[in-house]
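Hey L., structure's done. Input below.
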Amino acid sequence: MSPTKLSLEQLIQSCEQQLQAYARTRERSTDSSSCVEIVQRAVAGDDAALTHTIAMVYRIVEQHCPADLRASLDDLRQEVVIRISRKLRHRDSPLIINHFGTFRKYVDITLRNTASTFRKTERKHTAAPLDEQLGNTLTPPPLTGIAWVEAQQRLMRCLELLPDRLEREAFHLRYARHASVDEILAVMQARGLATTKQEIYRATERAIIRLSQHAEVREMFESDGGIAA
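Output:
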């Protein structure tokens, strides 16, 4: 008789115990089967498991955020989650996890690479008025020809699949205009939409989860270039 499949709630409880044990030992021999199964369910399309996997990534990033980027923790954490989410649901090469240590290593590498990108961006960043932020400052290098048309088609299809206004606005500004959460908040307030940074983070995560269910737009998450306005 095959073993009874644990519910996600049971896996989460067991995973918390395993994480505590792993934190004490850092040994690969430490049982991490429940945590691994949660990640594997996320890869397989379980949205509730994906939500908890994202929560685990949040905790890891918060614990290991570089000291010089503490002021940018929220944006850094959001960007790491975006990159991890892309890999978890990658159509051709999804993340393969057999031990939680492997997952931790992947998150650590992603955090390190993202932090490096943030440092480069901060060195180049110059303050700009809101009207400029709504224009060139938030606009990535333009695509041309067929590439531009395809990017526009992907973007429009994604926005059609997002029923909530805040999700649409946050997704558009975050992905198509490469805006930070603070910039998105300023735009939302300028448009008369009452919200907070935490609501923007949650709306972006919901949009990622919702869109990752659609094969027709999944390629956007698998592309290094993303989409462009």
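Residues 100-124 form the longest helix (25 residues). The domain at 130-222 is CATH 1.10.10 (Arc Repressor Mutant, subunit A).

-- N.
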